[in-house]
Amino acid sequence: MAATPQEPGKPVIPRALAFALRQLRRAPATLGWIFIFWAAGTVSSSLIDGPSGTLRPNVAAAAHSVPGHWWALPASGFWAHNLTGYLLGSALTLVVGLALEPRMGSARFAAAALGSQILGIAAALGFLAAAHQVMGAWTREMSGHLFLGPSALITGALMAGTATMPTLWRRRIRLAVFALLILLALYTGGFADLVRLGAAVAGALLGPVLHGRAPRFGRPVTSRHEGRVLVALLVAVSAVGPVVAGLAPHAAGPLSVLRFLFTNIQPVDPQTLQSLCTDPGQVKECARAQLQLRAGAGGIFMAVLPSFLLLLLSDGLRRGRRFAWAGAVLIELALSVLAGITIAAALSPVPANTAAGEAAGPIEVPGYTHPLALILPLLLPVALTLVLLLTRKLFPLTAPAGTYRSLAVSAGKTAAALASVYLLAGILLAPGFTPVPAPLDLLADIPDRFLPLGYLFDLSPAFFPQSTPAVILYEGTGTVFWAVTAVLILKTFLHPVPAQHAAGTARAREILKTGQGSTLSWMTTWPGNTYWFSATGESFIAYRTIAGIALTLGGPVGPGHQGKSSLAEFTAFCTGHGWTPCFYSVPQHLRDHAASLGWGSVQVAQETILELDTLSFKGKKFQDIRTALNNAAKNGIRAEWTTYHDAPLTLAAQIQEISEEWVADKKVPEMGFTLGGLDELNDPNVRLLLAIDDTHQIHAVTSWLPVYRNGAIEGWTLDFMRRRSTGFRAGIEFLIASAALDLQAERCRYISLSGAPLARHAGTTPSTAETPETGGTGGLDRFLGRLGEALEPVYGFRSLLAFKAKFQPRYEPLYMLYPDAAALPAIGNAITRAYLPAIKLRETLTLARHILGRATYKKPPINQTGHQSPSRNPGEEHTVKPHAPNPPRP
């Protein structure tokens, strides 16, 4: 089609400019503030150097603004220190305002910004008043500081605006902003840093209130992946903060003392240098000071080496690496010991200086007038050590065998090469040192070159570099070594995690692919399981021992005719180790065999199977499924197969975002054992099906586990199932239906939609084994029924089973088998710990509260098929709830 010519005389507005104008019209409060900001600066001649004269105390907030100049609290947001402040403040305000004001509404946005400004300054003043007795010198210094500019307004508005964001992004933005502001406030300690931190807190509290909700203070539930990120961020902030304080010229924050512990950056002023070098008895002290003054990038790097290593290891913590965890623990333990020595020195008097005839008191740090002000910050390494020890289970991933042996060899070779260079070059550059070192002196000094420079000043080195080449050699040896080692360590973090997470995994996988398992058998390859192999070597059982219970994941895997003998062999194996076996999630035929042996059993789940050879989404009963398929096509959404292992970074990041958003809205942690998460997706054998649109945005994601029989894949099992809260509402129905049709075309026999624990289809009845030897289990079955009803508001197992009923599946019961009813309490404990290994006391109490309050729970509405709707909202029938569940199974 030919382009339509423009009408003569009509101006052509570029599309980008038209869009910008539309956005500006949606943010009148932002534009109004910018107009007042520049008008006030222009009228008061403050654009270049800020307000001056009598205007300054009236518009600049300070420690003495209240009560005499209380109006400076709101007014300080409408002036800046200089032209740079006006330009930068306007740019930041535009960015935040254009993004949040249309979302919040102009009145709420303005109220949040101005309210946060006032409350933030008030909070800073209150903190300074409270800290006066402990850190008097610091608070007195703050009295001379002024606060000007819109930074508190912007920060408060941003934090308030997060109340309108999805859970995951709300938490991420708050975490990033608070981490930065807390770092600046605790380490640099400027008045403006305190104000911005106070404004951020005020904004986070005002946001929900302005939208008619009460602020929530509960600990956010995180997935394993997000938990790693949080710990890594904590370690990184603790590493960067002391460096910031050490490099800042006037750092005086409450934790700025840690720069002497983490970095030992001790700048020397020229006056101190002159006084040291004019004293004949201070020759070595003069040399140390000269070395510090001449220290270049290499010297600074070696001075901050502990912080650098912690920052390096934080990347490994983010990836869940056990090596990074161990390294961080060792460094924090070393710093804890050093902190203890420093505290002891601070509390103990220094021996009398006989030369001067004066007795010295305890160690003093400028700005710290109370011992607690020095001691409490030094306890940070101890606290970080405890955090790392308590979160140990978040970091189970190891590199392939031999990785760290290779790392040690490479680092050793690098150290040997650099030591040789230092020795030979040192002999050539010996005149550049004071005093001139002998070869043996250089040889003895080699180990010190690889240690943090700042920590050696108390060891009285035998010689110091004077010439520039000598300084480069002296500082560069350790710098090059640690730079090379850092690259080597980072490479180990990028090495793929080996599939063999326990002895026998490769062997178990081979049996699984060539033998006969169940629809749940691929879960036996997940981390956390141990393997028992039969006497023939053709069968295995995956299990985990918890408090004396050998809890299996499914039944024996291998040739079908060996199932009964494998059960007997495994039982004897457990008895020999003093364990009680418990077979969890096994099919009917194995339950029948166990019943003949006098074992007890109870149905713990119901699996849903779709037979693909006869599947056809036709007829009234599949109306919802056809609607989902048709609506997806109308919205330009397609189903795309991939694997998490091979997915582009942009898609993997979206999958992670969708998953973390789902977990963040839960009051209890992500479950494990038979419930896969992000870690279990990273397997080349696991297929992902994505609901993705033309803009490459993922609306929903499902994962599928292979089911093998005699060397061929005969079906697939649904595992991971989550949907973007703002995405296509019928995304999960669309993906399951698409998977069924695609796998049908691949000539697969069936797909399993997995089971739902503690849930049964309305048309089935409970089935338990009752024998004279074990006693009746009808009471246990009734208890599990009540427990499933109580947990429904938390995990939605029954709603999920009802949701799967849309696909008209075949139902198969799954059982738990146990030899002795007396072991049921221990078995219950083992199952709970298997599913929720990281559950905390608060989350346990949340679950208990739901269980105790089960009498008040109202069942979800009944839909037209007679099944409970999976939606909590009656108006959302035939759709997945906004955060589609992680598909619970037994």
Describe this structure in words.
Strand 12 and strand 13 (712-723) form a beta hairpin. With 890 residues, the chain is α+β, with helices and mostly antiparallel strands. Helix 2 packs antiparallel against helix 5 (83-104), helix 11 (224-247) runs antiparallel to helix 16 and helix 16 (305-318) packs antiparallel against helix 17 (322-347). It starts with 14 loop residues before the first helix and ends in a 38-residue tail after the last helix. 44% of the residues are buried.
Radius of gyration: 33 Å
Indicate the low-confidence ranges by residue numbers: 1-12, 352-369, 454-458, 765-777, 854-890
Helix-and-strand structural type:
alpha+beta
What is the helical fraction, as a range of percent?
Answer: 40-55%
Q: Largest sheet, described in full?
A: 11 strands, mixed
Strand numbers in spatial order across the main sheet? 5-6-7-8-15-9-14-13-12-11-10
| Number of DSSP helical runs | 33
Number of strands: 15
What gross morphology would you assign? globular
N- to C-terminal distance: 59 Å
**Whole-number mean pLDDT:** 76
- The fraction of residues in strands falls at 5-15%
